[in-house]
Structures are given as structure tokens and as C-alpha cells.
From TrEMBL:
Record-annotated ER-bound oxygenase mpaB/mpaB'/Rubber oxygenase catalytic domain positions: 17-258
Leading EC class: oxidoreductase
Name of the protein: Oxygenase MpaB family protein
Amino-acid biosynthesis in keyword set: no
PANTHER family per UniProt: BLR2777 PROTEIN, ER-BOUND OXYGENASE MPAB_MPAB'_RUBBER OXYGENASE CATALYTIC DOMAIN-CONTAINING PROTEIN
Keywords from the named record: Oxidoreductase
Pfam families: MPAB_Lcp_cat
Domain of life of the native organism: Bacteria
Length: 291
């Protein structure tokens, strides 16, 4: 499938273009990933087949690049979706409830995609600003386009916000649970090796300092993962969240909202997003008739 038959990525300048490549999006990802693996089948697939324990930095880098391609990859977006489907073809097994699963079973694959919308919608209130009703609808429409990039059929995705929320609440009531992977992702004492990416001098410094750096970083990761998860999802999974933690999250969000918009483009946006945004702006400035 090529050319006009390819599913179109989200439109340049849309709500998702503003959120997905902003550095604040990095803070939102752990909550979405944790909500994904709260599904018994998805959690079992990650538990059985993922390298997130042995190669967390590599897996994180690959996942982030993949997400960026869905939104900013242009013609490469659909190919990335096909690559992911090929990667998941052999992932199957038995979930925590004794049910056979396959990663590409529509209900399972659609849940992995679905979790992004409620997390973006909720986390934006703290880190960016609350979305208006029109922005929420635009974001949902753009997220549906991401689903098509991933090869999910429209019949397997709620097509409107009005259809999405009953589906989401049903999943929270009937499916999600504190899987083994969820418990590891929210644990403040989970072992994580030092980063193995970046310049040699930086890796050596981090390796030397890692025993002192890991405990506060792990506590922050746990805090931001649970805090930026929608409250109804948090409750359905059984994750604790106190009023004191909520006040801390609001203070943290206020600082982030004030500082990030002041950053230059090269620091505020991730590389692929930054390049796509620059190309789009350059295209808008071209004289009429120029291809």
C-alpha cells in the first residue's frame, strides 16, 4: 500500500503536534505505558517478551522514536506502523487470567493505542493547560489517525469522544489490574541500570554517581507515573494517591508551565518534532505555486 492509500498522520499544527514532541510529553509517557500494561494481555506480553528489564534505556529510546514517527514522520509514519505489526506477530501466550492472548488481537492492540488519549487529556491540565472542548475533540480525531497508522481498523476504535468514554470506563471496570509489570513500573525501588546512551564521559559519570542518583530519580518516576495517570484509572488499578501528593504535583506542574514555554525551540522540542515543525513552517512561507 503506497501513495494516497496510506493512512494519513495527524495534521501539522494540530493539538497532537503541540503535545507529542514537546519535552513535557516525556513526563506523560510513563503514565500511558503503565496504563497499557494494566491490561492483563498487554501486561503478560510485556512481561514475557519485552526487554524493558534488561535494556530499559534502549527500549525507551525505540518506543519514543516510534511515537514521534507516528506523529511527525510524514510518509515514514505508515511504514513505522507496519514495522510494529510485524514485530508483534509472534507475541502470544497466556495472560494472568488464564486466557490465551496475541499482541495483535484487535481488542488488545486497540487498548494500547487508546490509553494515549486520556493520559494526554489529563496530564495537559497540569503540565500545559486544560484543553478546551474543541481541542479535546481535535485531539481525539488526531489520535484516531494515529490508530490508523498503527493498522487498527475504525471498527475496533470508538469513533467519537461520546463513544470513547463508555468504552474506557468499561475497560477500567472489567479489565485493568495491577499486573506484575504495573507494580514494577510504579515501584520507587525498582533496580534500573545506569544510562548506556550518550557521550562516553557522560556515561562514565552517571555510572559512578548512579548509586546516589537512582533513589531520587526512581521516586520521581513513580510519583509522576501515578500522578499523571487519570484518577479513575489510578483507582481502578489500585494505585494510592494522597492529597499531599496531589498538592506536590500541582506545584510541580505550575513550575513546568512557567519554565518550558520560555525555552528555545531546540530545547523545548524533541529532534524529530523540531525538524518536522521547521519543515512545515518553511513550507508555509513558500511562494504560491512552489511545490
Amino acid at each position: 500500500m503506497t501513495g494516497a492509500a496510506e493512512p494519513a498522520p495527524p495534521p501539522p499544527g494540530g493539538v497532537l503536534w503541540s503535545l507529542a514532541g514537546d519535552v513535557r510529553g516525556l513526563l506523560m509517557l510513563p503514565a500511558a505505558l503503565t496504563l497499557q500494561v494494566a491490561h492483563p494481555a498487554v501486561g503478560a506480553g510485556v512481561d514475557d517478551h519485552s526487554v524493558f528489564r534488561t535494556d530499559p534505556w534502549g527500549r525507551g529510546e525505540r518506543s519514543l522514536r516510534s511515537l514521534q514517527l507516528w506523529v511527525y514522520g510524514g510518509e515514514a509514519a505508515a511504514e513505522e506502523g507496519r514495522r510494529l505489526r510485524r514485530l508483534h506477530r509472534t507475541i502470544q501466550g497466556t495472560d494472568t487470567r488464564g486466557r490465551r492472548y496475541h499482541a495483535l488481537t484487535p481488542a488488545n492492540y486497540a487498548w494500547v493505542h487508546a490509553t494515549g488519549f486520556p493520559v494526554y487529556q489529563h496530564a495537559a491540565r497540569y503540565l500545559v493547560r486544560p484543553l478546551t472542548g474543541a481541542q479535546e475533540r481535535a485531539l481525539y480525531g488526531e489520535w484516531l489517525q494515529v490508530g490508523r497508522i498503527l493498522g487498527i481498523h475504525d471498527r475496533d476504535m470508538p469513533q467519537t469522544i461520546e463513544e470513547f468514554w463508555p468504552y474506557y470506563r468499561k475497560m477500567l471496570a472489567e479489565e485493568v489490574e495491577a499486573t506484575v509489570v504495573v507494580r514494577e513500573l510504579v515501584a520507587a525501588d525498582a533496580p534500573v541500570p545506569p544510562p548506556d546512551r550518550g557521550p562516553l564521559w557522560l556515561r562514565l559519570c552517571l555510572k559512578a554517581l548512579w548509586p546516589a542518583l537512582l533513589p531520587p530519580l526512581a521516586r520521581f518516576r513513580s510519583f509522576i507515573t501515578v500522578g499523571l495517570m487519570p484518577p479513575d484509572a489510578r483507582q481502578a488499578i489500585g494505585l494510592d494517591w494522597t492529597p499531599r501528593q496531589e498538592r506536590r504535583l500541582r506545584r510541580f506542574g505550575a513550575v513546568v508551565r512557567r519554565i518550558v514555554p520560555l525555552l528555545p525551540e531546540r530545547l523545548r522540542y524533541l529532534p524529530l518534532a523540531r525538524s518536522a515543525r521547521a519543515e512545515w513552517r518553511a513550507g508555509l512561507r513558500r511562494p504560491a505555486g512552489v511545490g
